[in-house]
Structure formats: C-alpha cells, structure tokens
Write a structure and sequence with these properties.
Helices cover about 40% and strands about 15% of the residues. The protein has about 325 residues and is an alpha/beta fold. The strands form 2 sheets. A 7-stranded mixed β-sheet has the order 3-2-1-4-9-6-10, with helices on both faces. Strands 5-11-7-8 form a 4-stranded mixed β-sheet.
Length: about 325
C-alpha cells in the first residue's frame, strides 16, 4: 500500500460563479473522497445567485474550507491562476469545477499515481489527469470522453495541444512551487499552463479510467459536447482555428518563454524560438508545421495546428 491509515492531505482549488444549481452535489463529492483529507479553497468570481450562501453553509461544517470573495469578476482562467500561484503550501493539489461529480477514489487515484513517479523521480513537477464521463445537466451518462489514451509520445507536442482537462488534474508540490516562482497572471487557460509546464520540465501521467462525471449544460465556460461529433463541436473548432482575437497558442508560447527561458534546456529554447519566429514568412511557418518534435499522436490535432500556423493566427 502506498497510503497508510492516516489520510493524505490534499488542497483542492475551486473557482465558482453563479453555480448554485449544481454546487451542492460537487461539494458533497469532494468531501466524500476516500483516504484523503481535503483542504478546500474556493474563490468566488462575483456570483449574484446563492452560490456564496451555499459555500458558507458548507464552510460551517468543514473547518478546512476557505472562501475568497472580493466581488471581482476575473473569469475562470484568471481566477484559477490566482489560486494556483497563491496557494502552494502542501504536498498535493487538485482543481475543481463547480458543477461536476467526483468518484470517491478520484483524488487518491491521482495521488497514488504521482507518488509512484516521485519514488523514481523525487524532484520534478508531476501532473496527473484522467479520462472523463460526459453527462448531461441531470447527471445522466452520455459517453466516455476519450476512446483511446489521451497521451502524446512527443514532449514538445504540449506546446501545440493540451490533453489535460482541468477538473481531472492532480499535481505535486514541485509543480505548485514553479507556479509560486513565476506567478502566472495570464494564459489561454489555467490547465494549459499546468500541462505545458509539467510536460516541459517534469512528467505527466494519464489515467484512462474516468474518475469524474463531467457535467455539460448551458452555463459551461469550457466543456465537451454530449455527442462525439455535432454541429456545435464543428462550429467551436472552426472558431478556434480562425479566431484572431483570443489568447492563442502563439501568445501562450511567448508568455511561457518569458517565464521560463532562464531554466529551459537548449532544445527547449530552440523549439520555443522556432515557434515564435514562425510568423515571419512561409518558410518559417513550414519549418514549424513539419517539425517532428511538435507532432501530436492525433492526426486531427496535427491538421488543426497546421491550419492555425498556415493562416498565421498568432
């Protein structure tokens, strides 16, 4: 056994916004986790419904629960990045949405996987992520998100894709301390930042077994379609490819390079600069599109990335 009778401490970071409809079910699943002691830190992003009332009700019953309510609406990414860079004391950390339902072994499964890797590599950032069950707003099963392992054979493919859904993530203290060091303030999404940092400087662990009901409803900030392929999914993918207004993979690499270039290996810097110089002309774009170090395991994601580079949507 990796764990002993004493529960393992884990810090769960949650951002809420007008989530009163599903929040109780998620909080119940968090506080029902097996073989761990949860410290729950919640930042409310300016809710106007009963979210704060529910949080305070649960706080009264759980002494290791902290609520941050400053009235500011930072939106999900900035709110989570605030939590990630601010709360770094502890051995293990997990991210939580406000509307999912966790299996009782979700956290211990992630911690066990990380501990196994820490025995072999004790001083590196490690991030665990898993498959998901897609459910509707009534928590009724629709499908399994990944039909095959959601992994990459190339370290640098993490620079062009994110394979880790934030609500499945568990990570160790080393990764938390890297966030404390650079204090990330901006990025396309918080889970993308964690996944890329762990991929470049440490280790990512994928669990094909789903440990969470990932609820899809009209209020999702980011989510998955109930069906594997539908008009909504196609529309979202086309929007991602051709949108020039939102924070993109190119901007992400600029930020990551600025934050970590002093500790990057020579190859890390080389491939980051190759991407950052890709907008100069068609030759530089072609170099990035054909660089085998950036190749994803997914033909679909490779094509999507090549289109993005080709059209110069930095």
């Amino acid at each position: 056994m990796i764990y002993k009778d004493t529960p393992i401490d884990v810090t769960v970071l949650m951002s809420t916004y007008n989530g009163d409809r599903f929040l109780r079910e998620q909080l119940d699943s968090i506080f029902s986790q097996e073989k761990v002691h949860v410290r729950l830190i919640v930042r409310d992003d300016g809710s106007s419904d009963r979210t704060l009332d529910i949080l305070r009700e649960y706080q009264a019953a759980h002494s290791d629960m902290l609520i941050i309510s400053d009235g500011n609406n930072m939106r999900a990414c900035a709110s989570f990045l605030y939590l990630i860079r601010t709360y770094t004391e502890g051995s293990y950390f997990a991210l939580s949405d406000q509307d999912d339902v966790w299996d009782t072994n979700k956290l211990i499964s992630g911690i066990q996987a990380i501990r196994n890797e820490e025995k072999r590599m004790p001083n590196i950032p490690i991030l665990y992520y898993s498959n998901l069950r897609i459910v509707n707003e009534d928590n009724e099963f629709s499908r399994i998100s990944h039909t095959s392992p959601h992994i990459s054979n190339n370290k640098y493919a993490a620079l062009i894709e994110n394979l880790a859904t934030g609500c499945t993530i568990v990570y160790n203290q080393k990764l938390a301390k890297m966030a404390q060091l650079v204090k990330p303030m901006e990025y396309s999404m918080h889970d993308v930042w964690l996944y890329r940092v762990a991929s470049l400087f440490g280790k990512t662990i994928y669990d094909f077994e789903p440990r969470i009901n990932y609820r899809q409803h009209t209020g999702n900030v980011v989510g998955a379609s109930l069906r594997r392929l539908g008009l909504g999914k196609i529309k979202n993918e086309l929007f991602w490819i051709f949108d020039r207004t939102k924070n993109s993979w190119y901007t992400d690499i600029q930020i990551l390079y600025r934050q970590f270039n002093s500790v990057m290996s020579e190859e890390d810097r080389s491939i980051s600069l190759e991407i950052l110089e890709s907008s100069r002309n068609m030759k530089t774009r072609w170099c990035v599109m054909t660089d085998k170090r950036l190749k994803s395991n997914s033909i679909y994601r490779n094509i999507k990335f090549m289109i993005k580079v080709l059209f110069g949507n930095e």
